[in-house]
């Protein structure tokens, strides 16, 4: 496949306009059109359709652009690794992490790492479990930290780091504040839910399924843990939250905790990498070992 034409196609897909794509690539509009026609001829598929003054992708075009972007992300990752191998050490560390490790486990660890390795440029991206894994698989990060129980991705290598407790919290003074109730009782309350793809949401729904309890009524849904906790502090909603994220609020009596009969929720934190990435350089292995040793001393 003509990679030059494929690269032009991905730019056209992003800009949705031949004119804008040509300007961005500093080539003529006819040149863009010719390359797309050649690509369609080569693949035997119609990849774009006219829509008003712009274009839209066909379903075949959508398929191709997703995989093309992944290919070019891999290309960038290879180039980056070659530069790092040439210098014999890690120049840049790209980390993807779910909210809990990013906000409560990694900051102190990364501060210590930067003191020991000041020349390494560290970038930390925070998202939900699905987003973090996608970043890793698409070579947009070198390593990932995820709180997740269920796994079905054969391309991910995971190393257990530690376990995290999850607690049910309610507004201070709620009728269940400080009490022990059944799972069915707590699930009858209006809940604050995280977005789809969140590990906390997955834990909650899995718990309902295992114990044959209806999923809770959605009072509010937030894209982010911190926003959800502050809604409880403000006086609305029940939620399931990781203990490290709420323990200080509990100590200050800004929220209340509910104990649920016969239910103890503990989930693992994993360090994740790509299975096929066998050329992980020495410095990245050093970082993994650094985090593991730090977690043993500081987080337990």
UniProtKB/TrEMBL annotation:
<dbReference type="InterPro" id="IPR036388">
    <property type="entry name" value="WH-like_DNA-bd_sf"/>
</dbReference>
<dbReference type="GO" id="GO:0000976">
    <property type="term" value="F:transcription cis-regulatory region binding"/>
</dbReference>
<dbReference type="InterPro" id="IPR000847">
    <property type="entry name" value="LysR_HTH_N"/>
</dbReference>
<dbReference type="InterPro" id="IPR005119">
    <property type="entry name" value="LysR_subst-bd"/>
</dbReference>
<keyword id="KW-0804">Transcription</keyword>
<dbReference type="GO" id="GO:0003700">
    <property type="term" value="F:DNA-binding transcription factor activity"/>
</dbReference>
<feature type="domain" description="HTH lysR-type">
    <location>
        <begin position="1"/>
        <end position="58"/>
    </location>
</feature>
<keyword id="KW-0238">DNA-binding</keyword>
<protein>
    <submittedName>
        <fullName>Transcriptional regulator</fullName>
    </submittedName>
</protein>
<dbReference type="Pfam" id="PF03466">
    <property type="entry name" value="LysR_substrate"/>
</dbReference>
<keyword id="KW-0805">Transcription regulation</keyword>
<comment type="similarity">
    <text>Belongs to the LysR transcriptional regulatory family.</text>
</comment>
<dbReference type="Pfam" id="PF00126">
    <property type="entry name" value="HTH_1"/>
</dbReference>
<dbReference type="InterPro" id="IPR036390">
    <property type="entry name" value="WH_DNA-bd_sf"/>
</dbReference>
